[in-house]
Amino acid sequence: MKFPVQLVCVTCVVIATSLAEFPPKYVEDPLSELPSGHLKAFGYHRLPDGPVAEEKGFLHPKIFWGKYVSIHKPMVFRQAISDSPAILKWTDGYLVETFGDLDLILEVKREDRTKQPQRTNISSFIERYIKEDIYAVTVLPDPMRAEVQVPSCLLCGTFRDFMHETNFWMSSGGTRSVIHYDADENLHCIINGSKDFMMMHNKFRKYLPTFQKKQFTGSGFSSLDPDSVDLLKYPDVAKVQWTYTTLDPGDCIYIPSEYLHQVRSHKRTISATMLFTTDTSKSFQETNCEDASFNYTPLSAIDVHWTYKKGDKTIDMGYINVELLRQNLVDIFHMLGKGFLTVDDFVHVYSLASKDEEDEQSLQKAKELFTKVFEVDIDGKITEEQIKNLPRENLKTLGRGIDAPHGPVLDEEDDDDLDTSHGKDEL
Ligand SMILES: *[C@@H]1O[C@H](CO)[C@@H](O)[C@H](O)[C@H]1NC(C)=O
Ligand SMILES: *[C@@H]1O[C@H](CO)[C@@H](O)[C@H](O)[C@H]1NC(C)=O
């Protein structure tokens, strides 16, 4: 992961100059035999369909649901978190002084999903991030959540109850993602710097080369090089329609689940993202919306499922929404119609969910998980009440059992030792 400084800076300059123009301008060249945009960055392959839809001011969750989430339509929510103290406070010095001992997961700037993430603390990250090829993409640590505003569109109902992960992203610029989609609904908000987004409907997935996906987490990405699109090898890419936006501090973009997107940053940029899901019936429950307060609310006031605080062995990232997991268990319970769940029912569901081979070892693992999650013997019969009252921690044990951890896990014996043998999950 340590690159010679010189090499990194050459790369930065090349990226910065070639991508300075946004949105990219498609130019038809009738004299050329090559397709327009060939070997240029993604976005030069055709004219955009225009900017992403925008909102500003107060946005009620019910309106957010009706106009956008229910129909999977991306939307830029200008100034949605502009009252966040983080926008003015999060200088390098303040981050080191106030949060220096908290841990982060690091990736490389030009997303490479074959590379293993690393773990380090904020102090050492700030010391290194300008010179080295590192990008913090991590769980927003608990104390930092207190300084980020919740956008009004998430302040009641299913959206508020089903926020399962919040993230912190920071780099000195020159980052670019691959073209990908995520399983969850996502609000990506800017705290410092700016980010360019290109958004593509998931119906265009078929025009992009190989999508690697995870069955259960429901995310995936294209193998296309977004910095140099080979339109001779992949002529169908020219059919991929796109919209665009640039976000500045305080702005958020709603990225619908499974919506394709590609993201770039050019200078010091900090983002906070909020992952949420709709429930299993794919609807919005208005619980608590009647008497909700839409006053300023920090993220620390939300009961986020997966969190990180100092001393935690793992930085739990990329796991399933546990309330969705609970609902799934209830749905399976009703589908079976027996009045209870047994270990065999559980093992069956587990093997479907985890994509594990149904070998002896994974059957054993599923059985152990059953007794651990429900705190019963192997012949226990689980009732609907038990599922509905299962503590979040138990559901998280199940969530961790289904997916491999995203980042390195601190060793039990020696906290300084990093065990990077675990598979990387997809963002
Ligand atoms: C980003 O933060 C730096 C200080 O850390 C500040 O000087 C700069 O104005 C901020 N830029 C934006 C666009 O927020
Ligand atoms: C951060 O990590 C470095 C390197 O592991 C260590 O030397 C330093 O004491 C840590 N700083 C804080 C504030 O925890």
TrEMBL record:
**Which Pfam families does this UniProt record tie to the protein?**
Cupin_8
The signal peptide stretch is 1-20
> This chain belongs to which protein, by name?
Uncharacterized protein
Does the keyword Secreted feature in the UniProt annotation? no
Which parts of this chain are annotated as the region Disordered? 397-427
Keyword list (alphabetical) reads: Signal
Q: Does the keyword Signal apply?
A: yes
